[in-house]
What does this fold into?
Amino acid sequence: MIKPNTHYSELKSSYLFYNIAQKTKAYTDIHPDAHLLRLGIGDVTLPLCDTVIKALHSAVDDQAQKETFQGYMPECGADFFKQAVQSYYKRRSVSLSEDEIFVSSGASDELGDILDLFDDDNTVLIIEPAYPAYVDANIIAGHRIIHLPSDISDDFAPYPDESIDADIIYLCSPNNPTGATFTKEKLAQWVKYANERSAVIIFDAAYEAFIEDEEIPHSIFEIDGSRTCAIEISSLSKTAGFTGTRCGYTVIPMELERAGMKFNSMWVRSRTTKTNGVSYILQRGAAAVFTDEGIAQIKKNIEIYKSNAKVIMSALEKCGIRYCGGKNAPYIWLECPDDLESWELFSLLLEKAQIVGTPGAGFGKCGERYFRLSMFGDVSDTAEAARRIEALFKAE
Amino acid sequence: MIKPNTHYSELKSSYLFYNIAQKTKAYTDIHPDAHLLRLGIGDVTLPLCDTVIKALHSAVDDQAQKETFQGYMPECGADFFKQAVQSYYKRRSVSLSEDEIFVSSGASDELGDILDLFDDDNTVLIIEPAYPAYVDANIIAGHRIIHLPSDISDDFAPYPDESIDADIIYLCSPNNPTGATFTKEKLAQWVKYANERSAVIIFDAAYEAFIEDEEIPHSIFEIDGSRTCAIEISSLSKTAGFTGTRCGYTVIPMELERAGMKFNSMWVRSRTTKTNGVSYILQRGAAAVFTDEGIAQIKKNIEIYKSNAKVIMSALEKCGIRYCGGKNAPYIWLECPDDLESWELFSLLLEKAQIVGTPGAGFGKCGERYFRLSMFGDVSDTAEAARRIEALFKAE
It folds into this structure.
């Protein structure tokens, strides 16, 4: 008699974004003509930039000719892809060897798969509010989970709590959902904490391209001591609009070792056993992002998303609604007005303003009175959403 | 102190195909001008067919325009992809609902990930010789493994052994590495065995497109009773030359349930938590394979690979070397001549004939005296390999 992984039954009955999709569908079933302003799930809306499109077409052409056809790719990433990522890190003076860089199908895939490196008997520390997949993937893995609440008093980027013992620590900066960022000094404290406990930090850098303040680190590897305690997981989904195209990268330093086992070589073994690498076509497209031309083009898109943020922030300010994020991150995290709970605000915005946002409660208990708006929406939809928010909440 | 997954240290020091690559590299380092005839790793050499190339280009164009741009895909697969797979199964009178079909990045990725559905405390039955990743993925998962040897006396496709109790059963037909196929009657016995024990069959159908005998099943779901005991994992790698392009599919029937848990809904939860789906571009390319035009075109490529098989089989026959496979499968599995062990034959063929093959010992102990040749090589290289095999082994 086969034994299923019963941890699945410990999961809440369905996933946050799925819930939102269901509730939104229920609304559009009744109001089929409604034009929804979608600031909910963090999906991008601008097309891929020219340089990437050209690289993708050229790679497809390679697959059409015997002479240029690419079969199995190296499981950990094509050399050209690793070199592109290496050069991207070098721009911020982070030196990585090619062997420390792994291609992935994106951060969400990797955040789940990476747990394969660890024993079930580990305690995970998740700073909340948090991306719900951190919690769910660790429930499935059977890990003990400590939820560390954060709030406005620590700018949603807390210091480590010395009284807590954790083995695996999730840090996400710029943060989803709060838009908070960790300063160098705060990250240095977390690195010290992790090294002292022989813990491992899983650093989710999926939003690093949105940082505009010079002093905020884009990578955990800008911090001294991080090479003995951190894995960095990143993605092109938000950097270059790859949510539906899929490609990302993971960095595991050679020095990262616990109980005599090197996580880098374990990951090599995991990838060579359990994958056949990532599509040649996608790696070509992804590598093009890191060229000078590619970086200039994605910056333009990021500026457009940032102009969305400014429009929403301005509306919130006029309504006297407190918020954080929106500057170094593509999310605005606002306090629900009028003493509403977050799912109440969700329904109100959907019904009265046709705005789809994300209730803070979906990111953990301490998000109950907060709400997330994404800046990845259509420009005119976002401007209209700002107007409707003002109409709803601005004091006369 | 974080605990690594110590099962990694139970793995053999490196992976079969990696070993072959290393030994081959050592040879070419000394003989840089050698033209190797690569019949080793089962990598395809023919480019993607026109219909697929057109669909890929068109999907890349979609990603270049705001109106057609695709962000996050449904995690379990795009509707158009699921419908394409559904129609492909329908050609063989297998009815599947769209919800039973999942997109994947390919069979190797899925064979590893699928173990997430099961508790660590399970016993796995692997019929050997076998694809080495079955064993390694289950070592990493901490499962008990029973190795069931097969040999020429049972056509490398044994009946279940009633005295063995297993929870998870791997069946691969057509088989890698032996090229053996399971008849309907044999598969029916395995289905009965699995249902009686509440076990689950993981059916690897990656080579189904090579079957030419009408009576051999392409899918486990052609067998009565399989919907309560089987998961099918398939791939376009060999069917349509997607080894470096990546896309596959997995079928989990709604009826498959153990200890009150439905594996289909668990897999939905796994995919929605741990992935963001498979690239829109790749799904478009993959769906094109299953059109009438696509199927006609991939058949032509398969015919070319089969003509490779005929050339090699003819040479082996002239040398009096016994073999199986080559007819309904892209692999030929031969008995090592001259009492050689399989790694000895590997070195002999590499050094005397510049042929790269795969030693049978890499697929389990009972493969020690066997050797695998792949039919995916270049046509003229394969013909040359056949001549050199004759020159080496044909009795005067």
Q: What stands out?
A: Residues 292-319 of chain B form the longest helix (28 residues). Residues 50-291 of chain B form a domain with the Aspartate Aminotransferase; domain 2 fold (CATH 3.40.640.10).
